Amino acid sequence: MRHYEDEGLIVPGRCGNGFRDYCQSTIDRVLVIRTLLESGLPVRLIRTLLPHLGDGSTTGTDPVCAEFLREVQGFRDRLAARIATLSAQQSALDAYLRGRTVPSADRT
């Protein structure tokens, strides 16, 4: 949670004793951040995206948002290309393994 705070992704409240106070909306935001990070989206793009999530605004009409959407699309396209490469490599390994007999661990 402190990492997300350091990155400017969340701003927790403070109790009278100075301890951080994470309200439910901050916890919900952290769950969204984790999902976006797990998808591979860079923190820089997540930081740009977060203010627009759930605010009901019409995104995609201003130049900053349009540029952001192009960046996300580019990231998605690069990810799809990596997936295609990995799938081809997996298929090649599968074909190789089908043509080979795997030694049993029980044989001595």
From TrEMBL:
<keyword id="KW-0805">Transcription regulation</keyword>
<dbReference type="GO" id="GO:0003700">
    <property type="term" value="F:DNA-binding transcription factor activity"/>
</dbReference>
<keyword id="KW-0804">Transcription</keyword>
<dbReference type="InterPro" id="IPR000551">
    <property type="entry name" value="MerR-type_HTH_dom"/>
</dbReference>
<keyword id="KW-0678">Repressor</keyword>
<dbReference type="GO" id="GO:0003677">
    <property type="term" value="F:DNA binding"/>
</dbReference>
<keyword id="KW-0238">DNA-binding</keyword>
<dbReference type="InterPro" id="IPR047057">
    <property type="entry name" value="MerR_fam"/>
</dbReference>
<protein>
    <recommendedName>
        <fullName>HTH merR-type domain-containing protein</fullName>
    </recommendedName>
</protein>
<dbReference type="InterPro" id="IPR009061">
    <property type="entry name" value="DNA-bd_dom_put_sf"/>
</dbReference>
<feature type="domain" description="HTH merR-type">
    <location>
        <begin position="1"/>
        <end position="52"/>
    </location>
</feature>
<dbReference type="Pfam" id="PF13411">
    <property type="entry name" value="MerR_1"/>
</dbReference>
